[in-house]
Design goal:
Number of strands: 2
Helix content: 55-70%
Radius of gyration: 30 Å
Low-confidence stretches: none
Strand order of the largest sheet: 1-2
Structural class: mainly alpha
Distance between the termini: 89 Å
Shape: rod-shaped
Bound molecules: zinc ion
Number of helices: 1
Mean pLDDT: 82
Strand content: 5-15%
Number of domains: 1
Order of helices and strands: EEH
Length: 82
């Protein structure tokens, strides 16, 4: 199938790697590239916010573990010293 080159408007096969008239890459490859980039951006921000949330979620977890170990240590250490 022939498509119009977006650069020189010549008829170019949609399977051609680039326009034989002006050498422009097909619009499709441009589009898939920008999709890949925006997909990467979204994944990066998702990972970024996941790390932010995880670091906030880790604070109460550390507090609970510290409190639990303090309580357990406070209960166990007098027993161990008997
Ligand atoms: Zn062209």
């Amino acid at each position: 199938m022939l498509i119009d080159c977006y650069e020189c408007k010549a008829k170019v096969s949609d399977t051609a790697a680039s326009c034989p008239h002006c050498g422009a890459l097909p619009a499709d490859s441009d589009r898939s590239l920008s999709v890949a980039v925006s997909d990467l951006d979204m994944k990066f921000s998702t990972i970024f916010w996941f790390l932010i949330k995880a670091s906030f979620a880790a604070v109460p977890a550390v507090v609970v573990l510290y409190t639990a170990s303090t309580i357990i240590g406070g209960v166990l250490s007098p027993l161990l010293h008997l």
